[in-house]
C-alpha cells in the first residue's frame, strides 16, 4: 500500500480578495497550546509505504455544486457528495451527465447535504420531494447510499468501497442527516479499502463539525483511503498513523487547547521519533472543490493506493 498525492488546477475566471488571515502571533495569542501542538505535530517523521505492484489511481472530488473542474486521469473517480446546489432532479442530472462523460473506467458517487432530491425522508418542494434515485439516469456511475461494492480496476486489482451520504444534524436540517447521538457507522463492514463519506471524521479537516462516531470507526477499521467533503474550508490531505501522537492531537483539537493536552502531544512526538518504522496506514482526503466565496474552485486530488 502506498499513497502519492498530486493536484491539478486551471486559471481562475476572476479574483476575490479574501479577509486577512490571522498572523502566527495572533493564533498563538488566542490559542497558545493548540498553536504549539499543531506546529509540533507537523514535525512527525513522514514514513509512507512503498508503492504496490498493481497501483490504482483514485481521483477525488466533492461539493462541486454547479462547478465543472478539470479532472485528471485515473482508474477510479470518486465524488463525495453535494452533487447539486439547489437539490433538484434537473441539476442532479446535469452533474451526472458531466460525470458520465469522464474517461475513468470506474466512477463512484455518494450524495450530500445539498442533494435533497435523493433523500426519501426529506420533505420539500415538487423538484425533490419524491427522492427516487431511479428517476435519474446514472449510466456507469455507482451510487452508494450506506452501501458497499467490490470493484475491479484495469490492472485486475479488486478494491472494497463503502459509501454513505450522511452527516451530523445541522440547523436548519438538510438532506441525509442524523442526530449527533446516533452511531450509524457501526453498520459499516470491516476491511474496506476505500471509505467515502460526506461528513469528515471529527477533528480532521472539519472545523470540529465532523462526526466523533466516524472517527472511532476508522480507528477500529482503518481504510487505505477515506474521502469526504462537507467542510469546504479544509480542502487537502493528511496521513493517519493511529498512534499516541495522533490521539493526542485529536484530543487537544477537540478541547481547543490545554497545557496537559499539549504535554501529551510532546510525549507522542518524542515516541514517534523512537518508532521510525511506524508507517502511515490511511490517507484522508477532504475533496471539496468548491471553497465558498473566497476560494471558489480547488483542484481535484489524486491518490495512488
UniProtKB/TrEMBL annotation:
Q: Which InterPro entries match?
A: Calcineurin-like_PHP (IPR004843), Metallo-depent_PP-like (IPR029052), UPF0046_metallophosphoest (IPR051693)
> Which residues belong to the signal peptide in this entry?
none
Q: Return the SUPFAM superfamilies for the record.
A: Metallo-dependent phosphatases (SSF56300)
Q: Name one GO molecular function term.
A: hydrolase activity
Q: Which Gene3D superfamilies match?
A: 3.60.21.10
Any single Pfam family the record assigns to this protein: Metallophos
Tell me which residues make up the Calcineurin-like phosphoesterase domain: 72-215
Top-level lineage group: Eukaryota
Record PANTHER family:
ESTER HYDROLASE, PUTATIVE (AFU_ORTHOLOGUE AFUA_4G03130)-RELATED, METALLOPHOSPHOESTERASE
Task: Please state what the protein is called.
Answer: Calcineurin-like phosphoesterase domain-containing protein
Q: Which organism encodes this protein?
A: Penicillium nalgiovense
Lineage of producing organism: Eukaryota, Fungi, Dikarya, Ascomycota, Pezizomycotina
